[in-house]
Every structure is written in C-alpha cells, then in structure tokens.
Design a protein that fits this description.
Blueprint (H helix, E strand, L loop, with lengths): L1 H5 L13 H12 L11 E3 L4 E4 L6 H13 L7 E7 L2 E7 L4 E2 H5 L4 H20 L34 H8 L15 H13 L7 E3 L8 E4 L2 E5 L6 E3 L3 H8 L5 H6 L8 H14 L3
Length: 285
C-alpha cells in the first residue's frame, strides 16, 4: 500500500545526509519530543527549530528541490538537515521557519508593508525564472524526475516526467485529440475546447522553474520581510504560465489573493482562459 502512495522506487540517490544515526534520532524524536509541540498536517515539530515532514505522499524530491533552490538562488527556503525513506515512507528533516504565514501576518501590515512584500516576491520569482533549464528539458522535477500535484486528477501518487510541454498538455486533457471526434457538435463548449487544444498544442518556450503552489499560507513573514517560501512538493520545470494559474486556481475561495497575484506575477490571461476550460472538463470533481 505504501508503495502505491509514495512512489519511492529508484530514489535512494535523492536522500540527503542519510545515515543510521540521523534516521534513528529522527524516528525517536517523532515518538518523544514531538509530543511537546502542537502540529497540524504533515509537518511535525521535534524541537523549537526543527520539523519533520512525513506522510504517505511526501517524496524525497521535495528535499532535493529545496537544496537546489537554496544552492542556486537567494530565495529563503528551509534548510534541509537530512532526508531518507524508512519502511517505504519519506522523511524530510528541515529548519522550522520562525515567522507567520502571510494571511496571519497581513492583519498587522500597512499598505506600504504589503507593497514591499509583493516587491520581494516578484524578485524571488524573477530569480526562479532566471534558472536555466537542463538541455532538452520538458516538464519534470528539478532533476528531471516525476512530479506531484494533488489538484490534478489521475496524478496520484505522482506523474511525469514529460519530454515536452505539448506532451504534458495532452496528458492533462486525458489524451483528447480533436481529430478523434469529427462528429462532435460544434457548440460553445466544443469551441472553448478547440481553442484550448490549439493553444496547448502550439509552440512553447523552454520551461521555467516553478514553485507550483504559491498560496499565501506558503509564504512566511517576519518583521515585514519574506523569511521563507515553504512547501515545495509541487515544484518543477513547467510552462511559464503554470505559476500564475496554479496560484490563481489554488485559491478559489481567496478572492483577495487572486486580485493580488498580479502584484508579483505577470498575468497570463490567455493561458488562464485555457486553464479555466481545462479545469471545467478535466479538473477536480
């Protein structure tokens, strides 16, 4: 069952500072010191400054991604102390960022503070965009491996990689090809789908490195500064619009955030329209 969830086959090389002592101390701390800290979700504090991320869907590639971003940008990401798989379940031991999530911090921020934070975020996105993709890169993790995005049906536990952005798009629409449906009535829905397919199957520039889940809860603030971007499990090389549309679609109940995204991400209105059509027919049910 765990193998179905985790997809850890062939990933030992992704482990970071993995040895018997670190594994043993981590597992012991989860049974002892973790009891003294409140936690919610997959990140369990084991000390004031250290958390362990683990559940059936956590994957070593997330730790590899944080290490990659830390080594190649100035973006503040949690420091990874070690990562390993134990009994077919991944564990990522990392820094516990001291700060508040953006939604919690925003209550005490002035308009000037908000403008400064969005300017910081824009610079961070520009750093990600400046990372050169590997030669011939399609859609995949930072090392060209598989990806995760719980918002995409059929993606569990993981999906990809894809040799090209076009291949990724075909997979997203469940292999739909217009020529296979010559009898389809040309109504408004089909017109929208044809427009989406034409855009998806067209030419695309090289993929860009993408966080993939820039919702405000993954942005940590302290003293008016962005001190951490967390939760890199969806990150990878994607088409340029993916950061914008995933941030927009990831916050359907947060209209304020949707209206704020353009303050740090260049809007992609045509691609958003394409994604709205895809989400209508191939999104989560």
């Amino acid at each position: 069952m765990w193998a179905i969830f985790g997809g850890h086959e062939g990933t030992p090389h992704l482990a970071i500072r993995n040895n018997f002592l670190r594994r043993s101390l981590t597992l012991l701390a989860l049974k002892t010191t973790a009891r003294f800290f409140r936690h919610d979700g997959v990140c369990v504090p084991i000390s004031k400054n250290i958390i362990v991320k683990t559940d059936p869907f956590v994957h070593l590639s997330e730790a590899t991604t944080m290490k990659f971003v830390a080594a190649n940008t100035s973006i503040p990401v949690p420091r990874v102390y070690c990562s390993f798989v134990h009994r077919n379940r991944a564990y990522i031991v990392m820094e516990r960022i001291s700060g508040m999530s953006f939604p919690a911090a925003s209550k005490a921020l002035s308009d000037a503070d908000l403008a400064n934070i969005f300017a910081q975020l824009r610079r961070m996105i520009q750093e990600l965009r400046a990372l050169p993709p590997p030669p011939g890169a399609g859609v995949g993790s930072c090392i060209g491996g598989s990806l995760r995005d719980s918002r995409i049906p059929r993606s569990r536990p993981r999906f990809g990689p894809f040799g090209s952005i076009q291949d990724f798009h075909i997979w997203l629409r469940d292999e739909l090809r217009l020529e296979s449906h010559p009898e389809r009535e040309n109504d408004g829905d089909w017109e929208a789908i044809k427009k989406m397919v034409a855009k998806q199957d067209g030419s695309w520039p090289a993929p860009v490195f993408t966080h993939g889940d820039l919702n405000p809860s993954n942005i940590m603030i302290r003293d008016g500064q962005v001190v951490g971007i967390v939760d890199w499990e969806f990150a990878g090389w994607y088409p340029y619009y993916w950061e914008y549309t995933s941030a927009w679609y990831g916050n359907l109940t947060r209209r304020w955030w949707q209206n704020s995204i353009a303050r740090f991400l260049d809007p992609n209105p045509e691609e958003l329209e394409m994604e709205i059509t895809r989400q209508k027919w191939w999104g989560e049910t």
